[in-house]
Amino acid sequence: MKRIVTGIKPTGDIHIGNYAGAIKPALNFMKDNQLEPFYFIANMHALNSVKDTDLLKKQTLEVAATWIALGLDPQKATFFRQSDIPELFELNWILANLTSKGLMNRAHAYKAMVDQNNRADIDMDTGVNMGLFNYPILMSADILMFNADVVPVGKDQVQHIEIARDLAEQFNHTFGETFKLPNYYIEKEVAVLPGLDGRKMSKSYQNTIPLFCKPKRLQKLIKQIKTDSSLPSERKDPTSSPLFTMYQAFATADETLEMKRRFELGIGWGEVKESLYTVMNRELEKPRVKYEELIAQPAEIEKLLAVGAEKARSYSAKKLKEIKEKVGLL
Ligand code: TYM
């Protein structure tokens, strides 16, 4: 059986980029009974930016409720909270000792933060902590611990999966065959879902559409999506339009083809925005209601996570024992 592993950080509102790039593909994988999904809330990864006890708890609950509201079946998937799996942090340390500092210096998220700190116009240390520097190693532990074959992610995470492969190879070479080499899966059309301003949708750019915002707000945000100033009658290029990219993340293949044709005929932006709202709301309407119900029952979610943690640990405890034996720690 092939293993699918992915995680979402509880660092703020889940947005449609997270959904289209990672959650939706992950849930599609769940339909295949030949696959074994391991989906989790990466709360330890969130620590490098969230330093507020109640907020971290609240956001963790929100990510859990999001997964379930969208259709994750906890009977089928092993669904857990990262911090409930202590074996991950032992593996993190073992892998850290096989990781060259140079490799981490080249990691995108760390480099971006260093660049930001070095900008003369920002008089503030935005906080490069060791959690951020070590981020790819912990992420490798998440992936390798569960012998992932495939990791569904957005394009921004590809480098991290490549690092996990490097570390797996390094470990296997040093201590003998232990880890599978994971592959990433990216949904081509939405690998980088754009945000309201046309840049990648990202919490740090404040250009997101929260997945479960109320319909009125959704409509309002869609109206704010940047468009070029071409006239309604002019031919439009769908490949360069954030609206089109968002549309195809929610529309059927036929609807997408039809929209492409309408772009070429010169559809008005207002009409595209209306159609985008229709397909997005169609898909999110029911999960939104379910999400509101779930968020009001934290104890139920806790129960699910406790079962998930037990299931995950039945794998991770065995795997860690194998790893520690190979390294000479037992
Ligand atoms: P996070 O929570 O930042 O992002 C969750 C997922 O959403 C994807 N994503 C996007 N995809 C398309 N377009 C966008 N605009 C967009 N923005 C975000 C991200 O690529 C990601 O797949 N490091 C992970 C969390 C993690 C993880 C793991 C993932 C921790 N351990 C192990 C896989 C396997 C992250 O970025 O989370």
From TrEMBL:
Which InterPro entries would you find in this protein's record? aa-tRNA-synth_I_CS, aa-tRNA-synth_Ic, Rossmann-like_a/b/a_fold, Trp-tRNA-ligase, Trp-tRNA-ligase_bac-type, Trp-tRNA_synthetase
Give GO BP annotations, semicolon-separated.
tryptophanyl-tRNA aminoacylation
Principal localisation: cytoplasm
* Annotated GO CC locations: cytosol
Q: Identify the enzyme class.
A: ligase
Keyword Protein biosynthesis, does the record have it? yes
Chain span(s) of sequence motif 'KMSKS' region: 200-204
Enzyme nomenclature, EC number: 6.1.1.2
Q: GO molecular function of the protein, one example?
A: ATP binding
Motif position, 'HIGH' region? 10-18
Write out the annotated subcellular location: Cytoplasm
Under catalytic activity, the entry for this protein gives: tRNA(Trp) + L-tryptophan + ATP = L-tryptophyl-tRNA(Trp) + AMP + diphosphate + H(+)
Top-rank taxon, per record: Bacteria
- Residues annotated for L-tryptophan binding in this entry: 142
Q: Does the keyword Zinc apply?
A: no
Q: What family name appears in the similarity comment?
A: Belongs to the class-I aminoacyl-tRNA synthetase family.
Subunit structure and binding partners: Homodimer.
What biological function has been recorded for the protein in this entry? Answer: Catalyzes the attachment of tryptophan to tRNA(Trp).
The protein's matches in NCBIfam families, at most eight in alphabetical order, are given as: PRK12556.1, trpS
Name this polypeptide is given: Tryptophan--tRNA ligase
Q: Which organism is it from?
A: Alkalihalobacillus alcalophilus ATCC 27647 = CGMCC 1.3604
What is the gene called? trpS
